[in-house]
Write a structure and sequence with these properties.
It is a single chain. It is built from 16 helices and 23 strands. By secondary structure, the chain is of the alpha/beta class. Strand 7 and strand 8 form a beta hairpin. It has an eleven-stranded mixed β-sheet with strand order 8-7-6-9-5-10-11-12-13-14-15, sandwiched between helices. Helix 12 packs parallel to helix 13.
Length: 476
Amino acid sequence: MRVKTLLNLKEVVNNHKVNSLKTNSKIIKENDVFYAIKGSNYDGNNYIEEAIKNGAKTIITEDELKMKNKYKEINFIKVLDVRKTLALHAKKFYKDISKNMTLIGVTGTNGKTTVTTLVYKYFQYLNKKATLIGTNGIYIMNSFYETKNTTPDILELYEILTESKKKGVDTVVMEVSSHAIKMFRVYGLEFKIALITNLTQDHLDFHKSMEDYKYTKGLFLSSIKKNKVVIINKDMDDAKFFIDLSNAKTYTYGMKDADYQLLDYKLKITGSTFLVKIRKEIYSINTKLLGLFNLYNIIAFLAIVDNLGLFNNKTIEFLNTKINILGRMEVINLDNRYFVIDFAHTPDGVYNVLKFLNQVKENNLIVVLGCGGDRDKSKRKIMGKIATENANLAIFTNDNPRTEDPNAIINDILEGVEKKNYIVILDRKMAIEEAYKRSLNGDIIVILGKGNEQYQIIGNTKYKFSDKEVVMGIQR
């Protein structure tokens, strides 16, 4: 059979009235179209018969059409890429809903959650409606929904957009992960603004090389239309690469000669003060957010807000309020110690957090961290080296070991360690408690890697776990 990529939904269904598009055979209903997606753990082709039994009349697959003669009343259609085909069909099925909405996509290794949350919270501050999609979940106005991925799959995204529209929400701000870009989860969505925060080592278990990681991010930025906006961190190493490939109206931010320029700053454990130049005007801003990296996140936020036509005195007022971003440099003052909980889980992220805390510490700095299992192994020894060289004491522990041996993960971390200022406690709760026991008045204890995650994955099981809850439950 001729392999083809179908662009016309009518051609797919062959006169069957389509009820819905589905990738899960278990929730198929009469006249649904089933897309047999091959994932890392499951192959949708193994569930085709279940989909047919449950009512699917059309099957989209990349495999040979072996069941065609057995189920002659079923439309079997072979395509080059099921994920891409699904994205194209979903765009038609949901009537290209994103075209009439304001979609803001933030990509990059670090900072996505902070930038998107700032935009969402600013809309709340202005009493405007907005939807937030990202690592900390989905918020449609004030309604919260959990999500498994930083960027949900394409069908879930369209459902979120549809639900947002029903509630009168036109602005959607979302984190766009490299996995989502490569797996066509955002393909066909029309973004008004796309921003990249930075690019440092991460996800090499998935991308295999930094080049692939970089070009994947570039694929997203280059897809933004000419009459839309792309915003780029001018201070990152690959800034010119992304600027050159952008087809849209392109703006930059950073300390270099940028459109949104950080001029001067002062950092404290209680907050930051900085000067920023926006459209030739200089503004002084105070914020409770911590660290130079968060000043970059704030300026990224300012660039987005300005391009939405919403930058004014209220923006500066908003930044001066206590903005709580769960699991992102979240500070708990406990027993004359500062506990800092942050999601930093890359070499660059860990280094930037520890660098800032060293600048503001009054006494010792203790870091608690691990590395995720079944993920990029090459960054583990780098993080071990960074932790021991930039803290007085490092306590290495479990992150989400998943199906890997926790001891093997620790051994990988220790490969980069040259100093003897560390201990190993695999139980994460005990590791955090030990950090407290070894601390003194004025010490900073920073707990990295999991941020606001409410679980820990050991084997294939998710257990309820929260770094913050452990800290709040410490017996003093």
